Amino acid sequence: MAGMAAEPKYRELADELKQAIRSEATLLGVALMDGAKLPTEPELADHYRASRGTVRQALAGLAAEGLIETRGRAGTFVRRLPLLEYNVDSERPYREDQSGTVTDTWSSVVKASGREPSQDFKFRIEPASRAVAEKLKVEENDLVVVRELLRFVNQIPWSEQATYYPYQIAKACGLDVPQDIPEGTVRRMAARGYVEDRVHHEIGSRPANMEERRRFNLAPGVSVLLFRRLATAKETITRLTVEVLPADRNVITHITEHAAEAKQ
Question: C-alpha angle 253/259/263, rounded to 5°?
């Protein structure tokens, strides 16, 4: 049987450089911290005993992940944002801190990481597009309430979220107003009789578009994660939430707990 093909040299080099950047190691006298200037391609080629073409391919892969950026003739620099772990937690969209104050889970996670969350809020009422109408099971051009958030971590744009509500449900729950809902929309709907009992998650990715590259200051080639959630309450669809999360600063995780099986 033929042996497995060896991993391409540029991938080996990319993995080694990635580990060095993530551990903030020192390479050829350079501490690879955020903003540090990398050694030149010839220096890296000599150090790793690789061709400049191999080094260039490895660096291109790191740039696509948002770990480095090239600034013209100035050189190539480490551009490393600490990853925020975004846990799929549909059952507890809100948490209470030690003082008893209710905060959304995302803000709690950011604060627990030692960083400061903030957000910009937008509101609109619009006719449902075909795609939104199909998800919400309403007619195309029926009115939907859209509540949007642009989220920041330490004032850096981090993700954006848009939630679409069927107009009649939003009106019945008092979500059809351009103000923040202190207790959160999920709790507000539950208090009005729409207790979510099922949330369908869909996670995907795609290349960032020009507007997203501008909004999040993304390096060329960085993708965005798409996190969609469709919630129901007693078989009535209550909302569609769509989040866009740049892949250079977010990771989506999910933890499944299994009860121990009884031994026979």
Answer: 140
